[in-house]
Write a structure and sequence with these properties.
Distance between the termini: 42 Å
Structural class: alpha+beta
CATH superfamily of the largest domain: Pseudouridine synthase I, catalytic domain, N-terminal subdomain
Largest sheet: 9 strands, mixed
Shape: elongated
Radius of gyration: 20 Å
Helix content: 10-25%
Order of helices and strands: EHHEEEEEEEEHEHEEEEHEEEH
CATH architecture of the largest domain: 2-Layer Sandwich
CATH topology of the largest domain: Alpha-Beta Plaits
Strand content: 25-35%
Length: 249
């Protein structure tokens, strides 16, 4: 195979996003054939020995794509912190591939998590400049007024920065609670929960149903499956066609 930039090889091996792999290189934690590499250095995945933190990296010629319906109480990280006793998404997926979650859900949220060792695809699906959509079904306290929904759609100021416009509609009302469908084009940490709290309707339940064209469908809670070739092709088509959004001032 031809030589490629080391950070791209690491991302393809499932070490993490391209940005994370670049940081590993900056920290001097990556070597090729015993030599510490710098950003921009290249390596041959067939001929060169690439090592991260003392462990050899295996560059797979093929990728694995897995969909998981994450239950509550499961952490969407690859490794739990020392004081963390809850299971991670990787504990629920039985595959030899070294997978990495694409877009995290907090422990109390449920629904669609995509895991893959395709670092390029993961980077494009999570980077905010590409504006990929994520759809959530959210049960909130109370009954939001049309004025409140309009404010949500325009964007909510969180920590001094307004969120991007979102598509929001009422699905149904249950007593004093309301189910909403929310389509977001960014993935700030705990964004849905903080938006809802800011407008006086805290979240009681949160389920992610879609990542771009990928739909959770009827996959049962706690169950995983590999994506079909058609689903993978749809994700890659979205990646190839993704417009780059302008940075907000």
């Amino acid at each position: 195979m031809p030589e490629e930039r080391v950070q791209k090889l690491l991302a393809r091996a499932g070490i993490g996003s391209r940005r994370h792999c670049e940081e590993l290189i900056r920290q001097g934690r990556v070597t090729v054939n015993g030599r510490v590499v710098k950003l921009g250095d290249r390596a041959d995945p067939d001929a060169d020995v690439v090592i991260v933190d003392g462990e050899r990296v295996r560059i797979s010629p093929t990728f694995t794509y897995v969909m998981l319906n994450k239950p509550r109480g499961v952490v969407s990280t690859t490794t739990a912190q020392r004081q963390e006793t809850r299971p991670t998404v990787l504990d629920l997926v039985d595959t030899p591939a070294r997978l990495y979650p694409v877009g995290r859900l907090d422990a109390e949220s449920e629904g669609l998590v995509l895991l893959t060792d395709d670092g390029d695809l993961a980077n494009q699906l999570t980077h905010p400049r590409y504006g990929h959509t994520k759809t959530y079904h959210v049960l909130v306290s109370g009954r939001p007024t049309e004025e409140t929904l309009s404010a949500w759609r325009r964007g909510v100021v969180l920590e001094g920065v307004r969120t991007l416009p979102a598509d929001i509609k009422v699905v149904r009302v249950e007593n004093d609670n309301t189910w909403l469908e929310m389509v977001l084009r960014e993935g700030r940490k705990r964004q849905v929960r903080e938006m809802c709290a800011a407008l006086g309707h805290p979240v009681r339940r949160l389920v992610r149903t879609h990542i771009g064209p990928l739909a959770l469908g009827n996959l049962r809670t706690g169950v995983w499956r590999e994506l079909t070739p058609e689903e993978v092709a749809q994700l890659k088509k979205v990646k190839a066609q993704a417009p780059r959004t302008k940075k907000r001032r």
